[in-house]
UniProtKB/TrEMBL annotation:
Residues 262-281, 400-437, 659-680 are annotated as: Disordered. Residues 419-437 have a biased composition (Basic and acidic residues). This is Uncharacterized protein. Keywords: Coiled coil. PANTHER family: EARLY ENDOSOME ANTIGEN 1-LIKE, ZGC:162509. It comes from Hemibagrus guttatus.
Length: 680
């Protein structure tokens, strides 16, 4: 039965399955709709500005700034300034299409390099790995750096548009064209734009800190493996393998978490739930992700302790190591202590408090168990108390791991790294609690995909609401009689243009974060992990799965995560270029034509009307595509759950009602609404 579970788990967690799972879990956070829906509105607003610029002209240069204007070229002509906004907008969208097309082509090549890297890693010849693996990783790094440059240059284009609009509005304020409430409203909008820029810069700094810390965590992974193996008594192979799977899963969660952090809203603050009562949290999003990445290890050690509980008694015979005259749980206690020490260096927050509490409880239980041995049994009351403590520890560890999955967007069903899977299949040993663990992972998968569906639903609803608001403003402005289009109408249009352009720029900032992540993961692989692999001795007596194989698995994990992110970006870029070709580029060309036309000729009004209609059509087409994509997402997530139920749940023996109640309770508390909303 246990080998069947392992086999089914392997088939459900192949590289292809995990790539698709990542796309499903990340869909609400990296959805391409947010890249596309503001685009037709932005173009429509630029078209309206070209139309408005054909009216009365005036100077906005009454009170210029001391150092002169940084972005406006023609302050003597308001009409010329509007044309400058439109021209820079045209260049931004033109470059966005061209660069996204190149990003699509670049990311298409990553899977092939990944396949070659895996083939090389599976070779037993270390010299061959040393000679050829760096080239494959370097190819992925070059792609990431090229895409990073493309995304950064596009982001800069949209930033230029925003800067021109912002300076134009400031010039209008300084030229005293506003009074009373109007002046206050414009100043408020300018402050919002500056705050958005500041938040964006802070997000960039957080991202920089995150990718630097990955290298440190990689070093720790090697150190933790070596220390644990040194302290592992001979004959304790299964405990050692659980330790290793906890370390590798934790590192994968860290990368997933940092990737998801880069794809979330840049305006988001540190979540409310990180704050204890009466105390502000010192942790930011990344600090929390780092803490939550320890959940896999904590859960592994809790599960290993629970394996010594048989029904309503403790299996003292298996728990006590007669040869070394110690309780086997001493190893778990040492690992809980190691995690606790590493957590003490993290800033204070609720996640840290919860993780420390789990480690302390684990150490306390291990110390209590160590007092007894087969010869010195504890009484029935104490046994009952210990069993209850172990049960509660396991439930809390499962709840914490579920929170970790919610925060880091890591899949519930995780594959074993290739070298570890190979060694485990040779030994034929699997966890004694395989059925129970499989049920927990199935329940986690169900909760995670249900929660993802819920957040995606809200995401699409918010997008439709924002779209409706902006469309209504556009309709109101279009309904103005040409003679009624005054200065205030134009300013209102500029403010909305600044807002919408800000949203488009935000999406490109996400792309920059994605590629920063891929580039840095590969750089760590090339500099740190590969170096460790080459310098590590294969002579590890404790396990057949030695430090050399562990390094191989870490290399695989990093290359796979980089490939996973590239696959996610390829999905976004493919859709963007397709939609841009069908619905945006003709409108951009029309805008260019409009800017070059003589405003006095009757053809000008005809071209304005044509641009308006085509932008409305593009907007409707994109919204239809959004709903189609949402339906496909729901079908795929349902199909994934059905496949898990059909292949894995179907082979499991019936579970006791109390066991299922405990599992469901732990998972539900981990995916609770207040936890997820802070990140939505």
């Amino acid at each position: 039965m246990d080998s069947q579970i392992a086999k089914k788990n392997k088939s459900l967690t192949t590289a292809e399955e995990m790539r698709n799972q990542t796309k499903l879990v990340m869909q609400p956070y990296a959805n391409w709709e947010q890249y596309l829906t503001p685009a037709p509105l932005s173009i429509a607003i630029l078209g309206e500005l070209v139309f408005i610029s054909s009216k009365t002209d005036f100077s906005i240069n009454k009170n210029p700034p001391k150092g002169g204007y940084k972005f406006i070229r023609y302050p003597e002509s308001f009409r010329a300034c509007l044309m400058q906004v439109c021209n820079s907008g045209w260049w931004a969208f033109n470059e966005a299409h061209k660069n996204m097309d190149q990003i699509k082509l670049h990311t298409m090549a990553v899977p092939d390099y990944m396949k070659t890297a895996v083939k090389i890693l599976f070779q037993g010849n270390n010299e061959l790995i040393e000679a050829h693996l760096p080239d494959q990783l370097e190819n992925i790094r070059v792609i990431a750096d090229d895409c990073l440059e493309l995304a950064t240059s596009t982001e800069k284009r949209f930033e230029d548009v925003i800067n021109i609009i912002q300076e134009l509005l400031e010039a209008c304020v300084n030229a005293e064209h506003f009074y009373g409430e109007e002046l206050s409203a414009i100043k408020k909008k300018l402050e919002e734009a500056k705050l958005r820029k500041q938040t964006s810069e802070e997000a960039a700094k957080r991202s920089e800190k995150a990718v630097k810390t990955i290298e440190g965590e990689m070093t720790k992974a090697h150190e933790n493996y070596n220390k644990a193996m040194d302290s592992l008594p001979s004959g304790w192979e299964m405990i050692g393998m659980d330790l290793v799977s906890g370390i590798t899963e934790g590192f994968t969660s860290l990368i997933n978490g940092v990737t998801s952090m880069g794809s979330e809203k840049l305006t988001q603050k540190s979540p409310k739930r990180t704050q204890s009562k009466g105390q502000e949290s010192d942790a930011n999003c990344f600090d929390e992700i780092n803490i939550y990445s320890k959940s896999a290890e904590i859960l592994r050690y809790s599960e290993k302790i629970q394996e010594f509980v048989k029904e309503n008694t403790i299996n003292w015979k298996d728990l006590y190591d007669q040869k070394h005259k110690i309780a086997k749980t001493k190893f778990q206690a040492d690992q809980f202590n190691r995690i606790r020490e590493s957590l003490n260096k993290s800033p204070d927050c609720k996640a840290k408090e919860e993780a420390l509490n789990l480690c302390s409880k684990g150490i306390e239980i291990c110390e209590e168990l160590a007092k007894y041995s087969p010869e010195k049994k504890c009484d029935e009351a104490k046994t009952t108390e210990l069993i209850e403590m172990i049960r509660k520890l396991n439930e809390s560890a499962r709840s914490f791991d579920s929170k970790s999955k919610a925060v880091t967007k890591s899949p519930a069903l995780t594959p074993k790294p290739p070298m570890m899977e190979k060694e485990e299949s040779k030994s034929g040993k699997v966890s004694e609690k395989a059925s129970e663990n499989a049920r927990f992972r199935i329940e986690q998968s169900r909760a995670q995909l249900d929660k993802t569906r819920e957040i995606y639903e809200k995401s699409v609803e918010n997008m439709e609401k924002n779209q409706k608001e902006l469309t209504e403003i556009l309709i109101t402005m279009r309904n103005c009689d040409v003679k009624q289009i005054d200065f205030n109408t134009t300013i209102e249009m500029l403010v909305k243009g600044m807002d919408v352009m800000g949203r488009v720029k935000e999406q490109w900032e996400k792309m920059v974060r994605f590629f920063q992540m891929v580039s840095n993961i590969v750089k760590v692989s090339l500099t740190k992990t590969l170096k460790d692999f080459l310098s590590t001795s294969e002579k590890t007596q404790k396990l057949s799965y030695n430090a050399k194989l562990f390094s191989k698995d870490l290399l695989y994990n990093q290359a796979f995560q980089a490939s996973n992110i590239a696959s996610l970006v390829n999905m976004i870029s493919t859709t963007y270029t397709e939609v841009s070709s069908k619905h945006l580029m003709d409108r951009i060309s029309s805008l260019g034509k409009l800017m070059a036309m003589d405003k006095e000729k009757p053809e000008f009004l005809s071209e304005v009307e044509q641009l308006r209609n085509s932008c409305d059509g593009a907007q409707q087409a994109i919204l239809a595509l959004v709903l189609k994509n949402k339906k496909e997402f729901e079908e795929k997530s349902s199909a994934r759950l059905e496949k898990i139920d059909k292949e894995l749940l179907a082979i499991l023996p019936a579970a006791a009602p109390e066991e299922m109640k405990s599992i469901k309770s732990s998972v539900k508390s981990g995916f609770a609404d207040d936890e997820e909303e802070a990140y939505a």
